[in-house]
């Protein structure tokens, strides 16, 4: 049996390299990082300015995996919102729904974030993002890389802060919520609403660490994803 692909969406401003640098996952799953426009090998493309464009573009990247057999979706922070919207968009386009949606470090859709960071000047914006996330994006320390990363980060943060779900119909997909136990940005209460987005059940797993717990140690995350797939077997891929 081939491993189940976990299509991974990065947090605001990040690219697929975040996941590409992780250790090899346990047997049964493989990580497939999806690369949003405007970063890394797609740096020559404009970042997304609206969620519809983002989901349409990422759906094209996800479609071959959805067509090939069972798959799951995973996203952290803003990436969790993108994964959730992909879980809606792919079936709407006539493609199979994911067998599992794993959202990490994110309030449930419809929970207002209560912050407006995108309009700040560069120094204030970077300081605000670092304060909120408890994490310093490595590229922001390099003046040359900062010029490349900052417009993408601003665009993502603006989309995240202005996000409002267009559809509240529960997904026919089981949802699991990952959260750092000491996440000051996303509370346990913020996550409870994820139970309302699934008609197939919702569970929660906590990890040691804060909002960016998975950057500190991805191994527990990989093990948890493999355990989820093993506990809720998706149909075999031929």
TrEMBL record:
Residues 5-217 form the Thioesterase domain. One of its GO terms (molecular function) is hydrolase activity. Keywords: Hydrolase. The keyword Electron transport does not apply. SUPFAM superfamilies: alpha/beta-Hydrolases. Belongs to the thioesterase family. This is Alpha/beta fold hydrolase. It comes from Streptomyces violaceorubidus.
